[in-house]
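Retro notes (design track)

What went well: tokenization of the new backbones is finally stable.
What didn't: we kept losing track of which sequence belonged to which structure.
Fix going forward: every design gets posted as structure first, then sequence, in one message. First example under the new rule, 124 residues:
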């Protein structure tokens, strides 16, 4: 029996390292919002400390079932008050370091979930 890797029709994260992630065949070196259905836009924050409530209000406007927040090189949580727009729309937000967020995004996207990852890419 011949085994082949399962082909995905969703956008996936193909690799990651300090200061970069691969999205399909592209190398991205800035913080980014990426969705399984093809969403890809720059997220204007170079480090966790640059985040503001407006960043999370932006996430609340997305059409997603679940949002994964990659907080950079280590797991850090935003202030709870910043999540109010997400809670108002009953959107789940899972927080983890960016490397774990990349792996989790791929798993959920492969399951056909409407998932979005907001990834902080800190300089290497």
């Amino acid at each position: 029996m011949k085994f082949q890797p399962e082909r995905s029709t969703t956008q996936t994260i193909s690799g990651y390292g300090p200061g970069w992630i691969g999205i399909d065949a592209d190398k991205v070196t800035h913080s980014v919002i990426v969705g399984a259905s093809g969403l890809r836009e720059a997220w204007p924050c170079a480090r966790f400390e640059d985040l503001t409530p407006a960043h999370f209000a932006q996430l609340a406007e997305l059409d997603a079932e679940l949002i994964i927040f990659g907080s950079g090189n280590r797991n850090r949580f935003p202030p709870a008050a910043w999540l109010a727009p997400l809670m108002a729309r009953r959107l789940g937000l899972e927080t983890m370091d960016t490397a774990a967020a990349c792996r989790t995004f791929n798993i959920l996207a492969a399951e056909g979930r409407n998932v979005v990852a907001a990834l902080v890419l800190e300089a290497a």
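Added context from the reviewer: The chain has one domain: 29-119.
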